[in-house]
Amino acid sequence: MKAELVLKDLKAYVNGTVTECCLAIKNGKIMKIGKEQQMPKAEAEISLKGLLVLPGLIDVHVHLRDEGKAYKEDFHSGTAAAAAGGFTTVLDMPNNSPVTMSAETLKNRMEKAEEKILVNVGFYSEFPKSLHEIDEIIGAGAVAFKLFLSEQVGGLNIEDDNALAKAFKKVASRIPIAIHAEDKGIIKSVEERLRREGKSDVEAFLEAHSERVEAEAVKRVLKIAGEARARVHFCHISTKQSLNLLVEAKKAGLPVTCEVTPHHLLLSREDLKRVGALALTMPPLRSENHTKALWEGLKNGWVDVVGSDHAPHTLAEKSADSVWNVNVGIPGLETTLPLLLSEVNAGRLSIAEIVRLMGEDPSRIFGLKGFGSLKEGFRADLVAVDLEREFRIDASRFHSKAKFSPFDGKSVKGMVVKTFVGGKLVMDEGEIVAKPGCGKIIKAQAKTGSVNEP
Ligand code: DOR
Ligand code: ZN
Ligand code: ZN
């Protein structure tokens, strides 16, 4: 059988080791991994000149915006940023306009995305007002539910433990429930006091979004989820205490998973003070003892996922005088992999860990069968990187509409050179070379929560 494409002269991360090999691709899937003489005849060949090929990475935490917030990011610009950053699959958060929180809003979003996307996209839904809609939302293919506890976003009253318990029980273990763990009640009361005192600087923001805010929300959700036997995924864990709570829950056998962001791993509150409002995000950057604890959790395997929490805003929205009026969040799709490859070069991280945290574990947790590893029969979603190339992060050149980053100007060693989606070259040396529409809309299968075969 003839392949469509053979990639040669490369090293690839296959079965836990980096080996010199070739990859044959047919019908968007990996047809064969082997030595050059084992390759089938092909319609085309590309020499990758010694580049390292990894499975196309999965970013489970992306705010693609579009629809009412397209001025911040749209499906095309957001997935172009993903391809440029080596991500071939992203999961889209639901705090959109309109909020994704019904089968209808979900289907509309899928329809609008389909012709614009350059990488594969799956969708989160917020919880609906009435619980009977949960089945319809799962039936429409949501990959997971998302629950913001820092502010009311969806239809479920986040102050009502009983309502949360009922919703969690209804979802049970069908698809994961991802949590933004910050307690709205505490944030609001502290923020109101600080506002009355006329405080509106970065220090005030840190006081309102304290470590306790995160820990209380984690404790609350663990209690409710434990009783409901729901599969809960904690987004952007940022403190030592909340990570410890999750480690204890895991040891007790609860089906919980957690994610950290590159900014919480690599930056601290000192950077927030240096950079200012552009580095404001929720949860905020923390002191170095927390950063250290997150690294330890990652190295020990307690941290399941690195997610970018790509949260684009306009520069105007990032530059209000008062922190209470700044739009919080930072774009991360184009910085995450170069930053982590730099950590590989510095000896702090391994390629195996990158693939586990942004390929294998995301695929397992979110039921993305056939994604996140280099295996015959899996999707030919690939990223080719050059571990030797050094460059400076330049946010003005992002494909994302959000042209800022707390990492702007930082020197990194490790460049994303080529990204293939379903065997098609989408990004080459920083340029998008494919037409929109080549990504796949990912729909979870209603009962099992695992997506259609690749
Ligand atoms: O910093 C954040 N930005 N945290 C969130 O939870 C939301 C996000 C956004 O949508 O901008
Ligand atoms: Zn969040
Ligand atoms: Zn987010």
Task: Write up this protein.
This protein is α/β, with parallel strands linked by helices and 454 residues long. Strand 11, helix 8 (240-251) and strand 12 (256-260) form a beta-alpha-beta unit. The strands form 2 sheets. Strands 1, 2, 3, 4, 5, 14, 15, 16 and 17 form a 9-stranded mixed sheet that branches. The two termini are 20 Å apart. The longest helix has 18 residues, at 211-228. The chain is built from 14 helices and 18 strands. It has a domain at 56-368: TIM Barrel, CATH 3.20.20.140. The structure holds (4S)-2,6-dioxohexahydropyrimidine-4-carboxylic acid and zinc ion (ZN) (2 copies). One zinc ion binds next to loops.
Outline:
The protein has 454 residues and is of the alpha/beta class.
Write the SSE topology.
Elements: E1 3-14, E2 17-26, E3 29-34, E4 42-47, E5 52-55, E6 57-62, H1 75-84, E7 87-92, H2 103-114, E8 120-126, H3 133-139, E9 144-148, H4 161-171, E10 177-180, H5 184-196, H6 202-208, H7 211-228, E11 232-234, H8 240-251, E12 256-260, H9 262-266, H10 269-275, H11 288-299, E13 305-306, H12 315-318, H13 336-345, H14 351-365, E14 382-392, E15 411-421, E16 424-428, E17 431-432, E18 441-442
Parallel strand pairs: 1-4, 1-5, 6-7, 7-8, 8-9, 8-18, 9-10, 10-11, 11-12, 12-13
Antiparallel strand pairs: 1-2, 2-3, 5-14, 14-15, 15-16, 16-17
Bound molecules: (4S)-2,6-dioxohexahydropyrimidine-4-carboxylic acid (DOR) and zinc ion (2 copies).
One zinc ion is lined by residues 180, 235-236, 282.
